[in-house]
Amino acid sequence: MTNPTTPTIDDTLSVEAADIVERPSIWKRLGQNWSVRIGGVALALLVAIALAAPLLGTVDPTLFDPSSRDLLPGATGEIMTMEGEMVAHEFLMGSDSFGRDIYSRVIYGTQVSLIVGIACAVVSTFLGVLAGLGSGYLRWLDGPLMRVMDGIMAIPGILIAIALVALWKASLITVIVAIAIPEIPRVTRLVRSLVLTIREEPYVEAALSLGTPGWKIMFGHILPNTVAPLIVQATYICASAILLEAILSFLGVGLPTDIPTWGNIMAEGRVQFQQYPHNVFFPGIFLAVTVLAVNILGDGLRDTLDPKMAKRV
After folding, report:
1. Do 98 and 69 contact (CB within 8 A), yes or no?
2. CA 22: distance to chain centroid?
């Protein structure tokens, strides 16, 4: 006779099956995380602003108009259209000392900053993954490759970026490469640490015993297990790249001044900051909100995707 208080094997299996069914999916857990919600919505709004820049009442951000110099936010002046006609225009964020519309320059600067941030994250993550997989799986490559990465990390990233931009012609591609290179060692060390742990797992040893090629083990068994930490790391790289691009442009060693970037706008407005603080205030607000949104999104992804941080595994 079975004791009613003693769980049977069938009861245990049913409880485990119910727990598996009730466990929320990764997308549901992401949707329940407030950091992911706030950061994702803010970042999506910035992306929408960047894509719809020509439709948001902007004008040519490089257009000079001496008659509309140093206007305060909300002032109305005249500006020349692409067809050469003078029309009335409301300067929502004022104008700079060259008569350029700050609002248009800030909106178009969103495009540049997001392109730099996303491109740097993709480039540094891709190269860091290749270097990390090779260093962690191929023992003979570990020593020389990591010494190179240690050498890169010994130099401050901003100095590397300034040196590369000074050596090459200042352009969008040059800035992306200059910012991405200092981030590669961080991704490499992250991937290497994960590979060193994963390659000792039983399923990897079983694949080796079956004669599975090394490249298939790296890209088919090990790489998928590094995706979640890499996504989180990529968000931090994106935020750091956006901030570093603004610093380089502010120092005058980034993108050319004719390209509307938040760093260029603040660099040109710092001369008359006491009289016209809006030239620095508005691009600074956009820069701070963008970096904060990406960082909040990264924190939410870390809390959701990292098993050590998740409440339920």
Report:
1. yes
2. 33
Query: What's the pLDDT at 82?
Result: 58
CA distances from 19 to 11, 12, 13, 313 (A): 12, 11, 10, 11
Please answer whether residues 29 and 287 qualify as being in contact, where contact means their C-beta atoms are separated by less than 8 angstroms.
no
Angle at the Cα of 225 (from 38 to 209), degrees rounded to 5? 175
Query: Domain containing 158 — which CATH number?
Result: 1.10.3720.10
Q: Can you tell me the distance from the alpha carbon of 287 to that of 246, in angstroms, rounded to the nearest whole number?
A: 8
Low-confidence residues in the chain, pLDDT < 70:
1-27, 30-31, 78, 80-87, 89, 306-313
Identify whether 234 is part of a domain: yes
Residues 6+ apart with CB under 8 A from 233: 125, 186, 187, 190
Query: How far, rounded to the nearest angstrom, does the alpha carbon of residue 258 sit from its chain's CA centroid?
Result: 24
Q: Residue 207 belongs to what H/E stretch? A: helix 202-209
Is 7 a member of any domain? no
- Cα dihedral 226, 232, 235, 236 in deg (nearest 10): -110
What are the beta bridge partners of residue 91?
A: 75
Structural domains in the chain (count): 1
pLDDT score, position 85:
66
Any domain includes 185: yes
Q: Quote the pLDDT of residue 81.
A: 61
The residue segments making up the domain with residue 299 are 40-61+102-311
Mind listing the pLDDT tens digit for each residue in 219-236? Answer: 887 888 888 888 888 989
pLDDT recorded at residue 306: 65
The pTM of this model reads: 0.82
Exposure string over 199-211, b if 16+ CB within 10 A, otherwise e: beeeebeebeeee
CA R_g for the chain: 26
- How remote is the C-alpha of 209 from its chain's centroid? 40
Question: Is 44 within the bounds of a domain?
Answer: yes
